């Protein structure tokens, strides 16, 4: 198994020539089948993937529904036939200090490809998406984070965080 970081929240450090950087996270897991873990904030992770010329991923695991981990979904979905593993909360609207921080892609744009799960699910023989991880120390959550569920605002406990 090999893991290639496509975007890693660092824009000021050295990186291989030709590759771009951005705030956000995305990794490509190379194994018996290639699995994408998050897609970064924009299309930079996809551009880096194309420069690296690896075999196409068949699956995408979303760690949680924030824009900096999911903003690059569309280029990958348009280029590859991906199964997407995500918590049911991943596509709910999210705000931090009244600024939208949720997934920028409408769910309808990729609906047929989403496999929702709250429990651990085997993505491949060696990879498991963990599902919902209960929070034991909620005081570490940001108090200004809001999620909208059924038109009701509530504190975002980031129940969809899968890592």
From TrEMBL:
| Alphabetical keyword list | Hydrolase
Stated name of the protein: MBL fold metallo-hydrolase
The UniProt entry, under InterPro entries, shows: DHPS-like_MBL-fold (IPR041712), Metallo-B-lactamas (IPR001279), Metallo-beta-lactamase_dom (IPR052926), RibonucZ/Hydroxyglut_hydro (IPR036866)
Indicate yes or no for the key word Hydrolase.
yes
Metallo-beta-lactamase domain location: 28-91
Q: Which SUPFAM superfamilies match?
A: Metallo-hydrolase/oxidoreductase
Molecular function per GO: hydrolase activity; transferase activity
Decide whether keyword Hydrolase is in the record.
Answer: yes
